[in-house]
Amino acid sequence: MLFRQLFEKNSSTYSYLIADTDTKQAVLIDPVIDETESYIRLLNEFGLTLKVAMDTHTHADHITALGKLRELTGCETYMGQQANSSCANDSFHDGSEVVVGKIVLTALHTPGHTDDSYSFVLNHEGQQYLFTGDTLLIRGTGRTDFQNGSAIDQYNSLFDKLLKFPEETWVYPAHDYKGWMVSTIGEERQHNPRLQVKDVIEYKKIMDNLNLPNPKMMDVAVPANRACGNL
Q1: Nearest-CA neighbor of 157 among 144, 167, 138, 169?
Q2: What average pLDDT does range 48-76 have in this prediction?
Q3: Which of 107, 144, 181, 195 gives 151 a disulfide partner, CB atoms 3.0 to 4.6 angstroms apart?
Q4: From 3.30.2350.10, 3.60.15.10, 2.160.10.10, 1.20.58.90, which CATH number describes the 2-212 domain?
């Protein structure tokens, strides 16, 4: 397996390129349109065919590269079924498998940040990878105050789904603003301040009082991303 974590600095977004080295087929998670040239370069350097590009949710802080990558590579584009995206080739739901060569990613519906938020699980050679989108961040969690977000739903996604994974499971989020690249479920259980709550009521109180400004690109990014990045 080939695995690369890629970073877009303006929105502090992580994208993930995962490829089966036998078939040379690849999947790209949460691509950013401004980095399209870099993605194409990597694909060409490694001799990869991009089969699938997909988003963990409808992003509000950057424009997705789904449409542009489909135009340039002929790849399939996927989003969660709750996104109601008419431009995506297909949608995934809870339990769906995205298969690229011998790579199998299992979709988990983890709403809360948005109602169409998903995480993906990958098992490879005894190691479990968890791509958590904006649901679980490193020492944080995604805000829940727009796009049908819900602190209660997010609490359930965290405590009933993601935190049930083994402690050694690697956690790869869609963003980090401190430069941290990877964590584990065990680290987040122990050190993530948002997870040190006694119940859903306490969690909701924390999330309801963050008072964060809207993302700068929200008014442009959300409608564009519902159209796979086409402005």
Answers
A1: 144
A2: 96
A3: 144
A4: 3.60.15.10
Average pLDDT rounded to a whole number, residues 176-184: 96
pLDDT tens profile 12-34: 999 999 999 999 999 999 999 99
> CB of 137 within 8 A of CB of 117?
no
Contact at 8 Å (CB) between 54 and 66? yes
Which percentage of the chain shows pLDDT scores above 70? Answer: 100
Q: Any bridge partners for residue 119, and if so which?
A: 108
Cα Rg, the chain, nearest whole Å: 17
Angle between helices 36-46 and 66-73 (to 10 degrees): 40
| Residue 17 tokens, joined | 């390129």
The pair phi, psi for residue 14, each rounded to 5°, is -100, 135
- The amino acid occupying position 55 is D
pLDDT at 184 over 70: yes
d(CA 94, CA 92): 7
Q: Which helix (H) or strand (E) holds 107?
A: strand 103-109
**Torsion over CA: 180, 181, 187, 192 (sign):** positive
The partner residues of 216 in beta bridges, in order of sequence, read none
Taking only the tens place, the pLDDT of each residue in 125-146 is 999 999 999 999 999 999 999 8
The residues facing 49 across adjacent strands are 25
The tally of CA atoms less than 13 A away on the side-chain side of residue 173 is 24
